[in-house]
Amino acid sequence: MTVRNFLRALLWAAALAAGSQAHAQATRTWVSGVGDDANPCSRTAPCKTFAGAISKTATGGEIDTLDPGGFGSVTITKSITIANDGMGTAGILAVGTSGITINAPAGSTVYLRNLIIDGGPTGSSSPSGVHVVSGDVHIDNSVIRGFTGSPGAGILVSANTNASRLYVTNTKIYGNTIGVSSTATVSSPIAIVDTVIDKNSDYGILGETAFSVFSLHRSEVTGTAVGISAPAPAKVSSYGTNLITGVAPGTTLSPAGLR
């Protein structure tokens, strides 16, 4: 190989490497209220929205907030964490759309932490705060409010292909048409712990299928005429540490009699 060809090969290899790095996804990215989605979403050059950051975040990676802001609705199709840890309010204002839609492959896990998900002003017709189509989802220390479109659920689980699990901890779900709703047609248990589901206009918890399986621990379902409606074959387990008002006919709490 001549010297010229050798140098040309080195330059070509360097160009390929640079291109590969430019398109590589980071394991950790950042968003900021003053960011720009044209940025690489690094700490020093953050993105503006969760949707802008997710395409630049590797599967199993994490999107963090650098400062308070409204970071927009997002669709999640892989394992990922979206977290706001001590940086003020991290909001999603979803007007006429769902706040977060999760449709990830079987075996995927999604973590949502310290977020405020808002359906917008009266008349916005926003359908759901978090819509779980597929994937295991953990929602912690968050607020979900103001979703009054159709179905108007703070959280909706509609899994129909892949088994899913939902864990809700230390969260407030209020001012929606339904607090937590399940229309799942495959195994999709829902665990609700240390959570307040309050003043949702129609139902606090609504289970519509045999795969609507709820467990409640140290939680409140209040401020709604029908706190829980989950007629058999749906199942609700309440472990005696909950405050529940308005259980619909046909709904059985197990163990029997416990609230």
Q: What's the SSE blueprint?
A:
Blueprint: H1 3-23, E1 26-31, H2 50-54, E2 57-65, E3 69-70, E4 74-76, E5 80-83, E6 90-93, E7 100-103, E8 109-113, E9 116-118, E10 128-134, E11 136-140, E12 143-145, E13 153-157, E14 166-169, E15 172-174, E16 178-182, E17 190-193, E18 196-198, E19 203-207, E20 213-217, E21 220-222, E22 226-229, E23 235-238, E24 243-244, E25 253-254
Parallel strand pairs: 1-2, 2-5, 3-6, 4-7, 5-8, 6-9, 7-10, 8-11, 9-12, 10-13, 11-14, 12-15, 13-16, 14-17, 15-18, 16-19, 17-20, 18-21, 19-22, 20-23, 21-24, 23-25
What does this structure look like?
Helices cover 10% and strands 40% of the residues. With 259 residues, the protein is mainly beta. The chain has a single domain (60-254), classed as Pectate Lyase C-like. The chain has a ten-stranded parallel beta sheet. Strands 3-6-9-12-15-18-21-24 form an eight-stranded parallel beta sheet, with no helix packed on it. A seven-stranded parallel beta sheet has the order 4-7-10-13-16-19-22. The longest helix is centred in the first third of the chain and has 21 residues, at 3-23. Mean pLDDT is 90; it is low at 15-22.
Task: Please provide a brief summary of the model.
The chain has helices at 3-23, 50-54; strands at residues 26-31, 57-65, 69-70, 74-76, 80-83, 90-93, 100-103, 109-113, 116-118, 128-134, 136-140, 143-145, 153-157, 166-169, 172-174, 178-182, 190-193, 196-198, 203-207, 213-217, 220-222, 226-229, 235-238, 243-244, 253-254.
